[in-house]
Amino acid sequence: MARRRTKKRTHLGARNGAANAPTANVSSNKAPKSMVIRIGAGEVGPSVSQLVRDVRSMMEPGTASRLKERKSNKLKDYTTMTGPLGVSHLLLFSKSASGNTNLRLALTPRGPTLHFQVERYSLCKDIKKAMKHPKGGGKEYLTAPLLVMNNFTTPPSADGAEPSVPKHLESLTTMIFQSLFPPISPQTTPLGSIRRVLLLNREPVSSESDNGSYTLNLRHYAITTKRTGLSRGIRRLKTAEKMLNSTERSKRKALPNLSKMEDVADYLLDPSAAGGGFTSGSESEAETDAEVEVLEMDARKVMNKKQMEHARDESGKAPNWRTRNLVEKRAVKLVELGPRMKLRMTKVEEGVCTGKVMWHEYLNKSKEEVKEMDKIWEQRRSQKEARKKEQRQNVERKRKEGKSGTNDEDVEDEDLSMDDDEWDSEEMDEDAAMEVNE
């Protein structure tokens, strides 16, 4: 005989009961985690699928980069797993019947949800093809990017007119995007750990026709730095020093050939230079990028006792390495990694992809209509709470019956009609076959 199925939701041994309920993750010091998901995995097309992979790499390291979706997966399948996995954000990409690409950014488990229409986008591979010297993926994705937001709040107008998007919704949008990545502290965050920048720029309202629009431009850059004030020859020698221990032949071929020169000064200096030590005006490479002062990252030699005594005998005093100037100037340059997206916000909802509409781009309701909708939503909330209360009472009643010695099989037979969580055997067989093939 086949083994009898044990109920998992309303039975005495339910895993989601009060005794077995998992503790809520209320720690605020943990880094946020996200899931980038395709809704309708077989219907979005290859371009949107590649865009999802690019967005996952952009959200590294706090995202599920190897997540695999199935055609049969629904939104509820992901929302039920956000709690056990500690996921705080959901980025849902989908494609409508008219061909529009949509993005929903939701906070779990209670919302709200921001709905965007992806008007234009460019993939990472397209951006690399358009660049002369693209930046390859390396250690940049080991740390979260630095989030830079511009023009997210509308300045007050001169005529005193109310903005198309309410102020509290602008603040809500700012808070949601800020919570995508862990916060940084300028005093404690190492400067070397910031390797990428995610730029979000809100387009200003340009005409009356776009008065109700909220459009964001997303760009993703890698941060590269180089020392300033050094000639090209010195920089090449410093690069060659790093390549000496390299085993790759291509890197060793890049070493400068000094065999035909009598002195290394012939490689570094030119008598025709105007006192600056550079061979030409182009070699000076006047820096137009921003310059910052950072601590020197070069390793210093640690001297033992004999070396310290020898240095003291030569100079007459002990060398103090702490007085060494450890600050150097570096030029900062941004290299685009991709992807690019132009997002137009169309709707804001209270819950996770469901709930009362807080703002809509195309629909404007009067105060009376808003009050009627509030009454309807309040009635739905009360009905939902009543159903939850009834379910809790049923679970408690079954626990008491189980403790008093009631047969579990009798309780299960009585409640078979109340179990609405039925399984489709064909779907289970299909999933099992897919797992075996994988």
Radius of gyration: 31 Å
* Number of distinct helices: 12
The quaternary organization reads as single chain
Query: Which structural class do the helices and strands define?
Result: alpha+beta
What is the rounded distance between the termini? Answer: 30 Å
Mean pLDDT: 76
Contiguous low-pLDDT stretches (5 residues minimum) are 21-28, 271-287, 408-438
Query: Beta fraction of the residues?
Result: 15-25%
| Major β-sheet annotation | 11 strands, mixed
Helix content: 25-40%
Shape descriptor: elongated
Order of helices and strands: EHHEEEHEHEEHHHHEHEEEHHH
Would you report the number of β strands?
A: 11
Walk me through what this model shows.
It is a single chain. The chain has twelve helices and eleven strands. The chain is α+β, with helices and mostly antiparallel strands and 438 residues long. The relative contact order is 0.14.
